[in-house]
Amino acid sequence: MSSELLKMAEGFSMVAESLRMLAGQTEMANPCTDRAEDTMQEKQANTAKTDTKEKKVTIEQIRAVLAEKSQDEKTVQIRELLKKYGAVKLSAVEEKDYSALLVDAEKL
């Protein structure tokens, strides 16, 4: 049972990190409204598409995708994905692997 609680705590931690990152990026007066949420999601989708094609992928982008997948109860798959890149946590992934990791994370 304690391992299950640890898994849940890790998932909440990932979600909290993602929310902190999103709070720092949003410039909306009231992000709680439906329209603001829709706009924020569109902005994230457009940013992810643009960044994977033209710009360098950031750890914050990966964290946001992983947090979303964690909410979809894919924590085990996330851990396996991080292991594929030789890491136990996201901050241990090498920067050269960010693009590939983001693509793999989006496929989960």
Question: Would you kindly provide a written description of the structure presented here, covering whatever features stand out?
Answer:
With 108 residues, this protein is an all-alpha fold. It has one domain (2-107). The protein has helices spanning 2-25, 34-53, 59-71, 75-84, 98-107. Helix 1 packs across helix 3 (59-71) and helix 3 (59-71) packs parallel to helix 5. The protein is globular and about 40 Å long. Residues 27-31 have low confidence and may be disordered. This is rRNA biogenesis protein rrp5. It comes from Lachnotalea glycerini.
Question: How many DSSP helices?
Answer: 5
Average of the residue pLDDT scores: 77
Low-confidence region ranges:
27-31
Total count of strands: 0
**What composes the largest sheet?**
none
* N-to-C order of helices and strands: HHHHH
**Content of β-strand:** under 5%
